[in-house]
Amino acid sequence: MAIPQLSWNLDFLKNNPVLKADSYGIPDEVKHINYPIRLVRYWFIYHFLREEIARKGALDVCEIGVDRGQMLGFMQAGGEVKSLASWDAVDCIIQRDILQRAGYQNFYEIDLESAEFKLDKQYDAMILLHVLEHLFAPEAVVKKIASQLKPGGILIGGFPSLPDNMVAAREQKIRSKAGKFGHVSVFSPERVRAMAKASGLELEFLTGAFFMRKKGFFLENYQWWFRFNLWFGSRFPSWPGETYWILRKPLK
């Protein structure tokens, strides 16, 4: 089975200056690790966009759930911002000054689950990175977001995941204890497939991310451990951990 992520730049986390910058709130235990699996979320999205840029050229991008702008920082570190037509931000709380300095252009401060959710244009790529697990009705939100994609555009993202037979019980448990902005939805690869189908999108890529993750773990200094985790995630996407995916809107 082909595993494209093993051919991507594996040193991008090791050499990325974003990891050393205090402004992004990266924990010190992660900053001093060569291949921090905790930050593989940005690594996947960076390479999804890099390959889409190689295929299509300049992209209009909308990132939903931007925090302090870490994702755009990763793109800048890779030199890919030269191939971006625009990069807009959506969040329930917009830190406008921070995000303007980071390079975001247009801002939407809105609750994704509100009836008023609507963007001003369609996009080539939309990012939902560790957002959907914070929503009570993620499938309904994905349907709304899919309508904002250009034909042929991609919705990319990821979140924590479990085997499908554990999802319902885990979701019931965390909803009973969740605080504000906490995790309230639980996902599996099967739920991703169903979500894509219900939204009229095609599942183009799906993978697990790792076998084991521990902040500051010494083995995360070695590329072979990073490669093993990528390989394991690709072969066992239902393993408890994280899942990353590309959903594409059909041209017709």
Brief description of this entry?
With 252 residues, the protein is an alpha/beta fold. It has 9 helices and 7 strands; from the N terminus they run H-H-H-E-H-E-H-E-E-H-E-H-H-E-H-E.
As residue ranges, the low-confidence spans are none
| CATH architecture name | 3-Layer(aba) Sandwich
* Element-by-element helix/strand order: HHHEHEHEEHEHHEHE
- Level-1 CATH class name: Alpha Beta
Q: Overall mean pLDDT score?
A: 92
What's the total count of β strands?
7
Number of helices: 9
Rough outline: globular
Query: Helicity, in percent?
Result: 25-40%
Main beta sheet: strand number and arrangement? 7 strands, mixed
Written description of the protein model:
With 252 residues, this protein is α/β, with parallel strands linked by helices. It has helices at 12-15, 28-31, 40-56, 70-77, 96-102, 138-146, 164-177, 189-198, 223-235, and strands spanning 59-64, 84-91, 107-109, 123-129, 149-161, 202-208, 241-248. The model has no long low-confidence stretch (mean pLDDT 92). Strands 3-2-1-4-5-7-6 form a seven-stranded mixed sheet, sandwiched between helices. It contains nine helices and seven strands. It is globular. Helix content is 34%, strand content 21%.
Which key features would you list for this structure?
252 residues, 7-stranded mixed β-sheet, single chain, alpha/beta, 7 strands, Rossmann fold
